[in-house]
Amino acid sequence: MNSLLKQAAYPFNIRRSVQDLITHTDDLVARRHDIARQIEAADRDGGMIPTHEARQWLDRVESARLSADTIRGRYEQRCRMFGGCSLNLWSNYRISKRAAERLAIVRSYEVVPSPITIDPPALAAVNIPIESVQIHSQESILEEALRCITEGPSAIIGICGPGGVGKTHLLKRINNNFVGDSTFRLVIFVTATRGCSVQTIQTQIMERINLNRDGDSVTRANRIVRFLKAKSFLLLVDDLWGGELEMGSVGIPYPLKNEGQLKQKVVITTRSPTICELMNVTTHVKVEVLEDDEARELFMEYNGHKGLYSDPHIGDLAKELVKELKGVASQLIHFGKEMRGRKDPKRWEDAIFVVKTSDTTHLQDEDQLSLKGTIVRNLKVATENMLARSNEVRQKIEIAERNGKTPTNGVISWLRRVDSITSSAEIICGQHQLNLDVSQSAAEKLHEVQECLDNQPSDIVVDVLQTPTEYIPIQSFELRSQNIVLQDALRYIADDSVEMIGIRGAAGVGKTHILKKINNSFHEHSDFQFVIFVTASRNIREQIARRLGINQDDRDAKLVTRISKFLEKRSFLLLVDDLREILDPKEAGIPFPLRNSSEIRQKVVFTTRSEHICGQMAVSKKIKVTCLEQDEAIYLFRQNVDMGILHSSPRIEELANTLAKELSGLPLALITTARAMSSRHHPTGWEDAIREMHDLFRHKDNPLNMEKGVYQPIKFSYDSLRNDTLKQCFLTCSMWPVDQNIRKDELVQCWMGLGLVDEPNIRSSYNEAYKLICDLEAACLLESGPNNDVKMQNVIRDTALWISHGKWVVHTGRVSSGPFRNAGHFPNIFEISPPEILVEPSPANWDLFNNFHWDKAMCVSLMCNSMTKLPTVSIDQDLSELKILCLQQNSLDANIARVIQRFIAVTYLDLSWNKLENIPEELCSLTNLEYLNLSYNFSISEVPKCLGFLIKLKFLYLQGTNIKTIPDGVISSLTELQVLDLLNMYFGEGITMSPVEYVPTILPELGAINNLKEVDIVIEGSFQYELLSQCCNLPLRLVALRKMEQSCALFRLSESIFQDNLLGTTLNYLEVSDSDMNVIEIFRGAEAPNYCFEALKKIELFNLKMLKHIKCFRLSPHDMFPSLSVLRVSFCDRLKNISCTMYLSKLQHLEVSYCNSITQAFGHNMNKSTVPTFPCLRYLSFAYLDGLERICDSDVTFPQLETLKFTGCPNLMSLPFNKGTVPLNLRELQLEDVKLWKNLIWEEEGILDLLEPYLKIKELPTEEELTKALQSMLPFYP
């Protein structure tokens, strides 16, 4: 009856039956995964294999899962078709009954078989093929060795004897003796020849016992120990050289156990009794050379001539040869085979001669491994360590001297003692090489060296000195006349009687190029401790101090003293480019008079346009640089013109030579004109250019015309630019100070503000501006500077001002480098201009300012002058033409209001980096303004209502201010606005700043502005974040998300942040800081399968104290961030790793700092066969990561890496490089401690030698320097 009821219930219990089956099956599958992982780990760590029962259980569980999936699929199909209420009871019955039956089977599998793994079946010993050699005297040795192994108590047995006597043959016979024998579970044969490493021996052992060989030597040793510790084994180590075998380092369980059935033995062969002593060998087996009779028998056996010694022709010779072989079995066998069938006595005589003259010392016991050799070797190593430490001390002293310090008497005495001991030790080592008995003196000297090492000053820390010469990239072309000047200069530099050299010549003749070639001549080999290249138009003191690594924070007088003190006892060559006024060497810190002797050489070389300056500077030698001869001029011209155009017509080739002749041999004119002619495809254009240049240079003997003649060819290049826009862009570059590097983003903002670049969207505008920069570089009118900046060559800048003469008034100061000029670690990305005025006013400017003529000027640039007030504007001066006013990087405050209100026609006004505390109302009266930059006036805290009067304003930059309120209606009044930058400064945790209150007000106003192309904004808190996510079509370019509350524990970086796709094409920079999220998830929803942040190039994660993970969900990071090139992660204390960065295909710059939970930065490369890691990464920095032990596994590669830096990572254990993965482009590997470098663990030998040329040791900064570094790590914006 019960059975019938059970059958009847099946159709109605279908849901429960299927659900029970699914639940139990899922639990069983999860357990199967656990067991599979245990089996995998046992295989990886111990070479164990699953039992037959475990394999069966895994297969049955998998079969049960498949059956359950089938039943689940049928059930779900019926649910979809009938909502679970099918009238077909028979189908329900079959599914329910099948589920119940399978459930019973699943429950029967819940007991896991035990054990799940066992040792793999293996042969105790693997037969090693050997030659069948019958040496009767060795049979007794073999028997003795086998008896010691199987019966004796000794754990380590040493077989010792000279080279070639048959030790290896004997050890192989011992191995083969245990084939098929059960005395040992494993017999392992390894070879430890000279130079053999721990890793090599580990590899042989692991191959024999079938263990996973991944990991470093420590990991592998642990794996071997776990496998062998409970097994009987015999380890046979052949030919041990050079020192003891560290069994613990290899992974041999030590001490070896010999208890009951467990037998663990090691047999070594070696030439040195000392090694046997070091290895604690308790049983010694000595293998000697053969006696004469046995030697003759062995030789004859392998020669194959039974009557050899009675042969009338060669018998005596054979005996003599055997005698010379001195009973060495391997040599007897070798020569026996070699002389087989030889009947010619001459051949036997030759063989005897070869043996007599051969070096057979390698067949003898090694003296190097004797006690005497060990003492001398230890002395040599200790002396090398002492010398290395003394070099570190000397480097520290040199660095300290730069900062005005001197070494203590104790340090000087210690260094002298090191020199004395080193000389004595070298003599002892030399005597040892001559086979003299020096063991007693070596032991005494070793004690002295060790005592000296123990007394080393404890406060010495290593730093790296500047390289003697910094290479300067220059255009590569060889000109005979310039090489003559170069050789003359180098000859004078080598002459001790010459102290100062002046290189003079007209503008544009190539003086700077020659001076740079002089600098580069000393790059590889230098007689000077320092070669210093400076530009006269910039602060010479600071350039010298920076080159020498001297702290530049002191006042001028103190800095001069430090430079002078440092250089006075050193050899140096100072190269000063473009000197236009008298230079007092003492004011620059140059010790004067210069010293030149056999020990110290001090030289100064400068270039100038003025003969007068050479006379006033009292130079020892003058070198005149003249224009090029015609053949050189033609060569240089042809090198720089477009070859396609040049060879397009014989007529153009002829005209090109004529035009080159007309340029009077001026290199700068030849280069710029050649580049300009690359756009002229018809001969008539070349003929016009020849006529123009002919008229220009017809009075070339007049020096004034020659000076003008330098400008005219550059103007010709200017006139040849493809359109007026490019010409105006060129002229604007002259507004910056001479020799200043100009950030490309600064140029882009300027050109947009002047209306020179005006594309439909901001991304196109930046792209177009970068193209214009490339055009100017191609025309040689701009040149690339450091950090991807650009700069304008002095003569070209002079030409630009000459072209705009009468319309442009430019009186700029000289920019001085400051701590924020290259802020942070992101060259030209997070770089900002100085937060305080770090400039020197041009001395001539002050007289000009007293009688400054604003009249008729269209553009006035007074940037970088330390001005506290503007030049006076008289009542009668006409300011109607003034459109552009550049006043950035001064000290102007609200007192300018009265003057500035006169500039009613100005459309472009830059007041960034000044000391304004508010926005003057008078400024709001300049109603023609289209561009206004008030960035980095830190005290500005509010926007006045009257700013809304500037209805023509298109560009408003308020970055780096402290603005917290913006009145209603101000932003909406600016109906022409295209760019609004409201990114305020972030001062870091613990520093109170006013909250940004204006966001809810201005977001709707921004949404109503039709022409808007870029918004840069700070969003604080989840409320503002929600408001922003509701705004459509806002062209956000730079965004900072701050103070996201705990409710935002999971932060998704996805298309769902905003309701439209505009963000993907505009967002360029994203900061997430000072927030509480635990996880950042990179996510792309199914509704937007192709969405990505295609314009995003920089991300900064800062002060995210709760952040633990950065995860990618359903996609690769590259798919979401295809253009990301810079990533900076700081102060994320709980973050475990940054593995998500490995596959970012455009990432070039990565910094991680103050993330103390990171022990390994990057995880395992899961796609190593298909997707390369870090394909473009060039700069990688780790700073103050207390927990960092390693970067990654060796399968993570860095093919393009140039710079790798570690600062404050005391627990770093290894670097992920082997011989095949050291980056080919590596230029710098920086650590702060030599000890840390020496303690690193390497996967392969020889890696340290490969990396050492790039090593730079830089000591940890002082507290003051660290404070500045922390300031520089705060987020900065492009």
From TrEMBL:
InterPro entries: AAA+_ATPase (IPR003593), Apaf_helical (IPR042197), Leu-rich_rpt_typical-subtyp (IPR003591), LRR_dom_sf (IPR032675), LRR_R13L4/SHOC2-like (IPR055414), NB-ARC (IPR002182), P-loop_NTPase (IPR027417), Plant_NBS-LRR (IPR050905). One of its GO terms (biological process) is plant-type hypersensitive response. One of its GO terms (molecular function) is ADP binding. It comes from Oryza barthii. SUPFAM superfamilies: L domain-like (SSF52058), P-loop containing nucleoside triphosphate hydrolases (SSF52540). This is AAA+ ATPase domain-containing protein. Residues 153-291, 497-647 form the AAA+ ATPase domain. Belongs to the disease resistance NB-LRR family. Keywords: ATP-binding, Leucine-rich repeat, Nucleotide-binding, Plant defense, Repeat.
